[in-house]
Automatic annotation (TrEMBL), chains A, B:
PROSITE patterns recorded: HTH_LACI_1, HTH_LACI_2
Pfam families: LacI, Peripla_BP_3
Positions of the HTH lacI-type domain: 27-81
Domain of life, per lineage: Bacteria
UniProt KW Aminoacyl-tRNA synthetase keyword: no
Entry protein name: HTH-type transcriptional regulator GntR
Keywords per UniProt: DNA-binding, Transcription, Transcription regulation
DNA sequence: CCGGTTCATGTAACCGGTAACATACGACGC
DNA sequence: GCGTCGTATGTTACCGGTTACATGAACCGG
């Protein structure tokens, strides 16, 4: 009654100041606050820590939210809290990729923990990975998931410097940037070689994608097959990543032209193996009697080929789940497990070998 | 000389106030400004509109950036400018998906225009699409790309309300939320039916994924094959999306058990068609003589199957490119083209029919 | 009935930038 | 010599939230 009425009559008056600036036009916390008759802090609390506000206020805020269709601006929230709830995963490519399981698991697991996953396609081109990184770091994600270890020194440097938790996946290295969930591609190649030897294979060939990890498998395969000394007589066909079915067919065709006596093919990707199988069938080369075929990835079609495809299986889902857990644990300062996990791989023996 | 020296001696003193707040610890614009000896606005200008600052200042700023390894905080920038340079694409799934081309094209095209693409996996589950939307809108993206039209009314409502430019893709509807780049799935089904009829097919079967768009193709196929009246005698096998090769094999196996006399299979996805082809080969059913097979998608393996697969091709790259262009035009207030584009599809005739 | 808690809410500052407007200064034309 | 304009930089407010701390009322035991 006694207060000067002016302030009471013009309570909120958003653009009273002389500076005109486009506000986004959306409903904001302040709008809600005005509507409910409290300050924005109270509204913020009602939304984030409802146990701190009275039941009455809470209900009125919730009603206002429904009425206005308010969606909180996570951008502003992130800036203020310096917590972005955003995780970025960089993958080389989506096409027919073994990473799909991992990405799926990441999405699910992170969503459950209240984080959103942003996927960046880096391509198999290493220079692009570098360029992307600035844009990624600039978004101040709470964590970064890398598929494969990054090899550019400047990129590793930058990642270390920015202090964002990083998980490298699908590979192993002695000096990870931060955390790591992977397995040894060398071991995969070696295991494939050893296995084929136990099957009596004498003259294998290799069909491999061109990316770095596939090359590592190939190299180890060659070395293991020759008991340490690399065997230059083993024919190798390299195809551009990402590989496709036709590549596999053409590879076998080419191999048979030049090395008609091969008795096995180690394929660096299941899709290549499928191509090889189809070409073999087409030419009436019986698998596994005349030609043993082994793939890598255990993609969802591997068990349904003719004959069912033996392959080196990597548990992509587990990699994703683990990476997510480790990342979230770290972000939320929980004592995590080992920062380096080797998930290994397994040889799935089906009938193609 | 005459001014009180206190202010001169304690110029920047970041945490002079009694309020202690964790600042992110990273290098900020203010840090740079202090280093160079100008205000942060000048530094901001040096970085964003270099033509507005003197050469001398520009050089000193650049030197400081190099020295400190400064990365601008895009979060803060977005908030201030209400321009996020972020585009979100919602796709049902990555696995073996026809959308891959589109996503690739989007990434490339948008990157060129200075935007980053965030991919959200919605799953084929419609309810999840809804839930994701809040998180997406909350990030205040500059634009949203949807694969397939969204059908939940509340979701459409929300998208319209938030004022963010939206492109729906891979489908057609009379009332798009905003913009649209797609084609008619009904027409695809109809075209497949008409085509098979010209090939003398009398007793076709359908193998189709369970998602809405595949169902639309199937329905139109059935209707077209019966000249308007739906034919209930055409056997239909529905498999869960995303479909895989084994689904195709099992489907044909099941079909032959119950309808041994079918003379064609219309597959709602190329991978299903591949399964059908493999099962046919396995059973010595010659394609196309005894059984004609047609797929959908023209995935990269379609031309390399035995026999090469006839399929309904959709130019996913074009969809992506167009969507990106339309979005950017809209965002940057350039007069764009038509807001609704039908990119059509084409029938790729290979030897499986 | 008083000091100490607890609960609900408020105030001011701050996150790291950008927008809008203001100003200092030199060049230029007449 | 003076008004005008352009250039380089500064000042202030603001984007939409969150954090740290303060305050006021209700409650509570002694």
């Amino acid at each position: 009654m006694s207060k000067p009425p002016t302030t009471l009559l013009a309570p909120v008056e958003r653009s009273a100041s002389r500076r005109a600036r486009k506000n986004s036009g959306r409903v904001t916390l302040s709008d809600l606050a005005a509507l409910v008759g409290v300050t924005k802090v109270t509204v913020s609390r009602a939304l984030n820590t409802p146990e701190l506000v009275s039941v009455d206020t809470l209900e009125r805020v919730q009603a206002a939210v429904r009425q206005t269709g308010y969606t909180p601006d996570l951008i502003a929230g992130s800036l203020a809290s310096t917590r972005s709830h955003l995780i970025v995963a960089l993958i080389p490519a989506m096409a027919g990729s073994v990473f799909q399981e991992t990405v799926g698991a990441l999405t699910t697991e992170l969503a459950a923990a209240g984080y959103q996953l942003l996927i960046g396609q880096s391509g198999y081109d290493e220079s692009r990975e570098d360029a992307l990184l600035d844009a990624v770091i600039g978004r101040r994600p709470a964590g970064i998931v890398l598929t494969g270890v990054i090899h550019s020194q400047s990129a590793r440097q930058k990642l270390r410097a920015c202090g964002i938790p990083v998980v490298e996946t699908w590979d192993l290295t002695r000096e990870p940037i931060d955390m790591l969930v992977g397995f040894s591609h060398e071991n995969v190649g070696r295991a494939a070689a050893d296995f084929l030897k136990t099957r009596g294979v004498r003259r294998p060939a290799v069909v491999t994608p061109s990316d770095r990890r596939a090359q590592a498998r190939t190299k180890a395969f060659l070395k293991a097959f020759g008991n340490g000394k690399a065997i230059s007589s083993i024919p190798v066909v390299t195809v551009e990543s990402p590989a496709n079915l036709g590549d596999g067919r053409r590879a076998l065709r080419g191999l048979l032209d030049t090395h008609a006596d091969i008795d096995a093919v180690f394929c660096g990707a299941d899709i290549l193996a499928l191509g090889v199988l189809m070409e073999a069938e087409y030419r009436d080369i019986s698998v596994p009697e005349k030609l043993r075929v082994i793939g890598y990835g255990d993609l969802n079609f591997a068990k349904d080929t003719t004959p069912p495809l033996s392959t080196m299986r990597v548990d992509g889902t587990r990699i994703g789940t683990l990476a997510a857990t480790m990342l979230v644990d770290r972000i939320e300062n929980r004592a995590g497990s080992e920062p380096i996990v080797d998930v290994g791989f397994s040889l799935i023996e089906r009938e193609s070998t």
